[in-house]
Amino acid sequence: MTQSTIAPIAVRAPRPTGITVYGCVDDEAALFRTAAPRWGVPLIITEMPLSEENVLLAFGRRAISVGHRTPVPNPVLLALSRIGVRYVSTRSAGFDHIDVDYAAGIGITVGNVDYSPDSVADYTLMLMLMAIRDAKAMVRRTDSHDYRLSGRRGRELRDLTVGVVGAGRIGGAVLDRLTGFGCRTLTSDIRARDGHVDLDHLLAQSDIVTLHTPLTPETHHLLDAERIGRMKPGAIVINTGRGALIDTDALVDALESGRLGGAGLDVIEGEHGIFYSDRREHPVENSALLRLQHLPNAVISPHTAYFTDHALRDTVENSLINCVNFEKREIA
């Protein structure tokens, strides 16, 4: 008796279950809708940030995308886990708005995205130049029709030493730009190859210190009162990373006393609930922020360094890729 041969039946891998995209503003939503068909992924898009009230929009989906503007509390992560979500792609480089360890403990992987480092690098250089040319005070004077020159002359970047803390993609892009200005640069980062120095040495030598390191328990208040005290008198601090890299009260004290010469801050401790909202008719309950805004030598912006069209395209595309790749691994 011959053994019959049965042709195998081709089994098509199941299609992705779709992605729910939270906290998505209009131009961002338009890019998601344009990009999604290329990946064959159905989307649910909402402008509302992820919360316990709208977590069921992710029901039946294994992957979701969230913005960085609103923290994701642990009870919301637990609710996601209970309805089957296994992957959260945050449309940011940082994770400080999500408890990644807690998420992992309940079966959820959290992924971040890379986007054009040029957006933040360009903005960082702008803050440096504004700080050394006393731009905030100048704009305030001219807005009030006072066109006299400042009593304090500006400085040229080529005459200064700039210390870059964190030499990853963004810190590296900042270093590339500084080359064109002809200034001396120092870096403090275990990944740096040339010019790496101890952080305390960098602080003591630098006229400008710019922060580009991730926020972790080890880097929380990296610039505290003690380290700020080791900086050069009149030095300038730039922060386009995360607000809690700096002890803000200690920084304000140093600026008000004249110990430091200025600051350019795109991020502030306690910014959640203040930045990205219209607070003209509501009190701002962040005393350090209010003190900074009264200072003529402190330039403050609402976490906007990343906010370019190119970075947005990268963020949307890479968030989709993260979710699709996760789905592929799940159904492989």
UniProtKB/TrEMBL annotation:
Domain D-isomer specific 2-hydroxyacid dehydrogenase NAD-binding: 125-305
CDD domains the record matches: HGDH_LDH_like
Keywords, sorted A to Z: NAD, Oxidoreductase
D-isomer specific 2-hydroxyacid dehydrogenase catalytic domain sequence ranges: 49-329
Superkingdom of this protein's organism: Bacteria
UniProt cross-references to SUPFAM superfamilies, sorted A to Z: Formate/glycerate dehydrogenase catalytic domain-like, NAD(P)-binding Rossmann-fold domains
Entry's Gene Ontology molecular function annotations: D-lactate dehydrogenase (NAD+) activity; NAD binding
The keyword Zinc appears for this protein: no
Family the entry assigns: Belongs to the D-isomer specific 2-hydroxyacid dehydrogenase family.
Name of the protein in its database record: D-isomer specific 2-hydroxyacid dehydrogenase family protein
